[in-house]
Amino acid sequence: MARKRMIQAINEALAEEMARDERVILFGEDVEISIMGDTRGLAARFGPDRVRNTPISETVMTGMAVGAAAAGYRPVCHMMYGNFLYTGFDAIANQAAKLRYMTGGQITLPLVFMGVFGGGRSSAAQHSDAMHPLFMNLGGIKVVLPGSPADAKALLKAAIRDDNPVIFLQAAGRGGEAGEVPEEEVVATLGEAAVLRAGRDVTLVAIGSMVAPARRAAEEVAKEGIEAELIDPRTLWPLDTGTIVASVRRTGRLVVVDEARDACSAASHIVAVVTEHAFGALQAAPLRVTVPNVAIPYSPPLERRVIPDAARIAAALRRSVSAGGAS
Length: 327
Known about the structure:
Blueprint: E1 2-5, H1 6-20, E2 24-28, H2 42-46, E3 51-53, H3 58-70, E4 74-81, H4 84-87, H5 89-96, H6 99-102, E5 112-117, H7 132-136, E6 142-144, H8 149-161, E7 166-171, E8 178-181, E9 194-197, E10 202-206, H9 211-222, E11 228-232, E12 235-237, H10 241-251, E13 254-261, H11 266-277, E14 287-291, H12 300-306, H13 310-324
Parallel strand pairs: 2-3, 2-4, 4-5, 5-7, 6-7, 10-11, 10-13, 13-14
Antiparallel strand pairs: 1-8, 6-12, 9-11
């Protein structure tokens, strides 16, 4: 395996899928010069017919993606910042999420909307949201949040090959972090979680950008004799509820870490599912570690204050085990 940054892994996935299938096209805001780095070199390799900058009009971009997918292409629409998905929301929520159903399956929409989400780079309130709960609620959109470079590559390849619309969100604060990426081709299964660390005392579910601090928190509390089982859902819709529920039935406790705001977060949904399906196994109330219901500050110290970190996660793990008693 080679160590690569997440943006490099994403770039490789895009290049390999475009080489594999000429129907895969890429367009979006500044994809040719690649401000984010994840589309670097693709315009020179595949040319303007398959890689193209668009005007700064998210309503045009998302509508064009729906039309291109319906016409037989497999478009990847790069929105740059995930917040810009809000501006193009109509074509996503009212068209992409519903056309396959409304046409009785006569139209398939194999398209991917990409964007950088979350804080960590002082990009201020209009560029730092974690908006994945919105898309989980649409019903007809798959939602993917990789937590490592290897998963970013494997999940993006799966998303591009899927015949349904997919939201693929890469974490702003994780893009430069390196991790091992297999040399051989790996295509993930959308809807399949990964158990990153086995544990007996508490189930720790970490979403996307929260995987790295959750891992550090698990290692910290392990020194105190608390063994957390770390699960990365990888996709939030479809959600691998079976893996999460089975883990909670073994540990009796649950802590969910989500960079979304607390109200109606993915963490809230996961807690609800576990409470419904594993209530009898719970030895303590499930806990959520999330962002307060405020806009993300520009100030680096304030931004660090609102985004969950390893210390907050470790404190929640200790609280969960303490409240529930020993296993």
